[in-house]
Amino acid sequence: MGNTLIYLLEKEIKQFVRDPFLPKLALFFPVMVILILPLVADLDFKNISICIVDNDNSTFSRRLIASVQNTSYFRVHDFPSNYKAALNDIEQNEADLILEIPADYEKSLTRQHPQKLSITANAVNAQKGNAGINYLMQIIQKTIKENGSQVSSMNSAYPEMITIRNFYNETLNFRFFMIPALMAMLIILLCGFLPALNIVKEKENGTIEQINVTPINKLTFTFAKLIPYWLMGLLVLTIAMLIAYWVYGLAPIGNIGIIYGIALLFILTMSSIGLIVSNYSSTMQQTAFVMFFFIITSILMSGLFTPIESMPGWAQTITNFIPPRYFIEVMRGVYLKGCTFPDVSIQFLKLGIFAIILMAWAALSYKKQL
Amino acid sequence: MGTVTVENLKKSFGKVQAIAGISFETVAGEIFGIIGADGAGKSTLLQILVTLLTPSGGSGTILGYDIFKDYRKIRTLVGYMPERFSLYPDLTVEENLQFFTKLFNVRQSSEDLSLNTFARQLIPFKNRRAGKLSGGMKQKLALSCALVHNPQLLILDEPTRGVDPISRTEFWQKLISLRDSGKTIIVTTSYMDEANLCDRIAFCDQGRFLLTDSPQSIINKEKEPIYAIRGSNMFRLLQTVRQWERTKACYTFGDTLHLRIDKGYSTDELLHFLKNSGCPDVSIQAIKANIEDCFMQLVNNPEKAETTIN
């Protein structure tokens, strides 16, 4: 088995290197994903368009408007004379948010029961609407507080502002949250898709027929298909980690060995899935379609973009069977929290089980006889 | 015992019966040709023989090993060349040869290779990618790869399809010299001239062998006269001849028509009929039946085939 494996590997690597397209892809892909995606996949909303209806026209309202204008979160679209005109702007999709300041608001602040400000948000994009409301409330509270020295007896009327401190990603930089997950996406795409296309390519070229009449055994053949992607996955991960460090200054707080360890298991899992799909399909189209479905599902359910905790209960159960979930957890843990091995041993165990089962399945599903 | 012995072999794909009960036996050191139209089941039969397909029924042994149980052993003993070129197009000629040599775990020096195969002819191209070879060269390389482990039985699926006449001749010379060195060769072909080069041939149609014999005795057994017809407008001539009520079969053969007629009638009557039907300049000549005539006769009259076999 040993020698045969080496000959097969030699052949696989020669084929990979000689491919006019694949080696370039393996270099270009990580660079592209880590350089560009963190900049665009940003959930920090900026430039939210706001309409302010100022019925008060007091010192306070002007101060409030000035603070809104001073942040980069908001872009004041207009100062309509009444609420109806402002609502029209939302309907035209020109404004995301309306802030209405009632008449005599400043005066009412000194009373026991002050008047209420009204905020209206366009919630077609719920996240953006919510974010806008949150930012705006913070600005309003801050302005009222600053105003406090001039307005008497206000302390009783307003509770203390809540102080928030963000652990692990103190600047709440969304990029830092995304980069470790994007590395997972890279491995899913390269080490999942390419092996899937590999065996089916041998089927389409007919070369599998010549291999099948040789006395080579299933396990050797499967290993020879998996190992090259192992090497490639580790290379791609290294490139991605270097770019993350040089461009964004993001280095893992925890031990880099843990990252490589979990990556070894994860690549094996993904390549095995690729091979399984490849073994069951007879054309590239079938493989590509099944893999595409699988990859989209795992990206959306692995917690890459949306937190698993906010999914419905049944969906959370399903995520237990999505291997990328564990890799992403470990990557974020080690990168942002500095997790040590005992912290992530559960993920190692689960991913290890996946790797073994799927690898065995990949070897068994390769049929030398039709 | 024969090199290959199969008994009532069957293979179905769903409802389609690709092999409908084939029995035959080959002896060591013969070229056994399987002749048949596309879709007759030839490739399926060969895939069963090389253990790529499991038959749905029947039994068989290859070099003494059971085709159901001992497929691992059979694979090390048989050389197979699929219908499609199935070497790695992105590896060079030399790399392909070495790769398959290594997979069969045989230690073979390059001298052995060149003695055994076409490798000598391939030496000038050894650094060329297999995908960039000409059709004839590809087939020579494929045969060389099928021979790396010095198999006693070679199974070749339409090895000369799409190959130029010179390479075809060379290829067959090679097969004959391999046969002379004691190897058994099972080959499918749709070229009738190649059928004559086989020691024995089997006519395959709709998953059955209609007839198995040596080419010479098949021709000798054919008693019915065949007529070759030539004329100016061949297509019109063919249609007109087919209208004649005494015509049993008429089909094109190269630039002539071949004709069988009912017993007891002469071609003079046909000439007369043709003249009346507006085909004047026609020459008719009695000829000896060739392999293709026998094949056409069998395919068109399968009931006759059964009796010939028994």
User: Strand order across the biggest sheet of chain B?
Assistant: 6-7-8-3-9-10
Q: What is the CATH third-level topology name of the largest domain in chain B?
A: Rossmann fold
Order of helices and strands of chain B: EEEHEEHEHHHHEHEHEEHEHEEHEHH
Shape assignment of chain A: elongated
Overall domain count of chain B: 2
Separation, N- and C-terminal Cα atoms of chain B: 21 Å
Radius of gyration of chain B: 22 Å
CATH architecture of the largest domain in chain B: 3-Layer(aba) Sandwich
Protein chain pair with the most extensive contact, residues per chain: A-B, 24 and 29 residues
List the strand order in the largest sheet of chain A: 2-1-3-4
Share in β-strands of chain A: 5-15%
What is the tally of beta strands of chain B? 14
Main β sheet profile of chain B:
6 strands, mixed
| Low-pLDDT stretches of chain B | 306-310
Helix % of chain B is 25-40%
| Terminal-residue CA separation of chain A | 23 Å
What value does the average pLDDT of chain A take?
86
Number of helices of chain B: 13
- CATH class bucket of the largest domain in chain B: Alpha Beta
Report on the structure:
- The complex is a heterodimer of chains A (370) and B (310).
- Chain A has 370 residues and is mostly helical.
- Chain A contains 14 helices and four strands.
- Chain A folds into two domains: 2-41 and 173-365, no CATH class; 48-147, abc type-2 transporter like fold.
- The relative contact order of chain A is 0.11.
- Chain B folds into two domains: 4-219, 3-Layer(aba) Sandwich (Rossmann fold); 223-288, 2-Layer Sandwich (Alpha-Beta Plaits).
- Chain B is globular, with a radius of gyration of 22 Å.
- The A-B interface holds A 3-4, 7-8, 11, 14-15, 18-19, 205-216, 368-370 and B 47, 50-54, 71-72, 75-76, 78, 80, 82, 84-91, 95, 99-100, 102-105, 145.
Keywords:
heterodimer; A: 370 residues; mainly alpha; abc type-2 transporter like fold; 2 domains; 4-stranded mixed β-sheet; 14 helices; 4 strands; B: 310 residues; alpha/beta; Rossmann fold; Alpha-Beta Plaits; 4-stranded antiparallel β-sheet; 14 strands; disordered C terminus
